[in-house]
Amino acid sequence: MSEPARLHTEPESELERSLLDAGRSYKVSAASRSKALAALGIVGVTASSTSAASAVTKAGLGKWLAASALVAGAALPALHYLRQNPTKPALDPSAVGATAANAPVAAAVAPAPSAALAASSAVEPTRSSVPGPVHTESKPAALAAELGALDAARSALASGDTSGALARLDAYARNFPRGKLSLEAEVLRIDALAKSGQTAAAQKRAQAFIQRHPDSVLAARVRAYAGQ
Amino acid sequence: MGSGSLLTTVATSPTPALWLPATATVATFREVSRASEREARLRALVDRYIDFVARVLRNAGTPEAEVDDDVQRTFIAVSKRLDDVRPDAEKSFLLQTALRMAAHARRTLARRREVHDSDAQLRIQAPIGTEQLLDQKRARELLDRVLETMAPDLRTVFVLYELEELSMIEISGILVIPQGTVASRLRRARADFRDRVRALSQIPHAEVGS
């Protein structure tokens, strides 16, 4: 079947070109993207703290962790909320008891102490100052911190800042050497490398990824870069 | 990131034992990593296709104010069927879903216009110079005007070929119609589109939309 040249390559008039361009260049806003992620129960990277937190309570991290039957999983939305509001007094570990009451989202989704605990253990490295069974609650907090780190990288990549994304992925690898989301991080890295023009490196990593994880749904994402 | 960590993380990481009941560890952790992969796949879909989905919706007839909602509905539809959708069929699935959403939006809009008056036809106040440079918003308005007046079958083929640059064979597969039908619809759609764009600049406004 012979394919005629697209009209925009040989427009009849400036008017026709403008109309075709308007149709071809339509894009959604960052807010729309966040809303779509929230609708899927995934925390949006650019959502406001309130909508992100409510998105989480709907399904996202809650569902993610429901499988692990963790009471402390409920602290994650609160953590997300607090992390996005670094100026809130809630981050002061000395105010652990009082903070949850000041944070309506935290209070709504989790028993106050565990919410504040999880939040401060992730944000404040000196968590030995926080009383309580730290080792049972720090894991989901670490997971949330991982998600946050990857979200930052993804956000940088989405805005075209490939070097920023790669720097964040380096930081992720340093901070979470055995990270549970390292597969996703590697996919992001391959994406970022390709988009920054380092196609050979992207291809090499993509091929290695597919070889190691041929059945992963993530493999489909890097296949295009592997030249396969 | 050390490349070795990729292999070991999911399968052998000892950390879950610290925070999960021991009996649940292996099965639960598999579930968690499965959920994580699912979420990663959905995120990847949104990252990769959200502009595509929104553009198709908009160009195929979803009004601007409803694009966000239909984008969400489209991705929710794919998330419900995620296990049935092969990775190489994701784009087709999203496209077919978006086209159905847009068709529904078009019908709703048409009913609304029947109830109210047809002010929409009077939006174009004056002939447009063919060489006039238009700002993006105005161009979008005029494009909507032109697309709205095209027959839906022609509009869909036009949008997929001219704005999404799908091949005629791809369009035939997506719409489940013979390739010859695609070719003839495209021929008519292009002629129709050009006529209507010319009409924007030539016909006095009272007749626009007739």
Word description of this protein:
- The complex is a heterodimer of chains A (228) and B (210).
- With 228 residues, chain A is mainly alpha-helical.
- Chain A has two domains: 30-134, no CATH class; 160-228, no CATH class.
- Chain A is built from 13 helices and no strands.
- Chain A has helices spanning 14-24, 30-39, 49-58, 60-66, 75-83, 96-102, 104-109, 112-123, 134-158, 162-175, 182-195, 199-212, 217-226.
- In chain A, α3 (49-58) packs antiparallel against α5 (75-83), α9 (134-158) packs antiparallel against α10 (162-175) and α10 (162-175) packs antiparallel against α11.
- Chain A is extended, with a radius of gyration of 22 Å.
- The two termini of chain A are 27 Å apart.
- Mean pLDDT of chain A is 66; it is low at 44-137.
- Chain B has 210 residues and is an all-alpha fold.
- In chain B, 70% of the residues lie in helices and 0% in strands.
- Chain B has nine helices and no strands.
- The longest helix of chain B has 36 residues, at 25-60.
- Chain B is elongated, with a radius of gyration of 24 Å.
- The model of chain B is unreliable at 1-21, 117-124 and 204-210 (pLDDT under 50).
- At the A-B interface, α1, α2, α4, α9 and α10 of A face α1, α2, α3, α4 and α6 of B.
